[in-house]
Amino acid sequence: MTSQRFLALLFTDIVGSTERAVELRDAAWRELRQRHDALVRGELRRFGGSEVNTAGDSFVATFKEPEEAIRCAAAIRNAVRSLGLEVRGGVHIGKVEGEGRDVGGLALHVGARVAAQAQPGEILVTEAVREALAGSPVDFEERGTHVLKGLPGDWRLYAVSGEPPAGLTEASGRTAQVRHAQGRFWRGRRPVPRAFAALALGFLLGLGVLFGWLRSDRMVDRAGRKVLAVLPFENLGAAEDEYFADGMTDEVRGKLSALPGLEVIASQSSAQYKKSAKSLARIADELGADYLVIGKVRWDKGVAGQSRCG
Questions:
Q1: Given pLDDT bands bounded at 50, 70 and 90, which one contains residue 168?
Q2: How many independent structural domains does the chain possess?
Q3: Are 140 and 45 contained in the same domain?
Q4: How far apart are CA 117 and CA 155, in angstroms?
Q5: Do 269 and 205 sit in the same domain of this protein?
Q6: Residue 53 included in any domain
Q7: 3-state secondary structure of 293
Q8: What does the alpha-carbon distance between residue 68 and residue 138 come to, in Å, rounded to a whole number?
Q9: How far is the C-alpha of 86 from the C-alpha of 154, rounded, in Å?
Q10: What is the pLDDT of residues 42-77, one digit of tens each?
């Protein structure tokens, strides 16, 4: 008997992908797509999403909670902008049949149609999602009723307004504490997988080196802010886990950007120093940075489900 589950579904796709492919030609577009896919998979892993499939420039994933699907969609949107790309997203909740990548059901068709209605950078959700998240910190704006191709009736859609609260950040901007209770790690009222908790704790304990360059000739007054650059983290794991290192780099960059008194250099500028042989002093000079953040990460999938960063 086919199993049925009630899940949240996330659909994303690159806006204007055909035009970019024509502009860049095959090799460059393939490389850009690979970087896009790595960032998307990194965010899916971070927010607990399960990839269903990818077709062309689109991703489909399932989540246990619609709020995590929305947060993941926003994180993907923000991450791929560092590549000069824009995505749109759609979130729906409903029953799906099957397990893992072998899932199906009407809910998938609804989610795909919802995403197709979104504008560049927009995350649209169905009324079922909005009702399920009533009272949550996620805000929505009504986008009216739509006829979704191949589906009966009119569908009322809503756009996620602004930036949904980050999964690991409290409204005050402080990093949320990960606490241990009854042998499990918890964030708020939801259990967090042990692998992710170990990753968070390991990362906080061994992020790497905060390399400060405070020379007087570069102490430029930028409304009282210091300039910081997060360099690409070195991947200590398997080659196919490079996306994990990229995802952690973007995660740290995003968290530091929220701190007062810092101007974090855009990822496009610091990404060029990936595996660079230049000295840190020279990189800091070229970027005009007061601080550099460097680090090494490893995703150990085969060690009791644990993760390590250092």
A1: very low
A2: 2
A3: yes
A4: 11
A5: yes
A6: yes
A7: strand
A8: 11
A9: 28
A10: 899 888 898 988 777 889 999 999 999 999 999 999
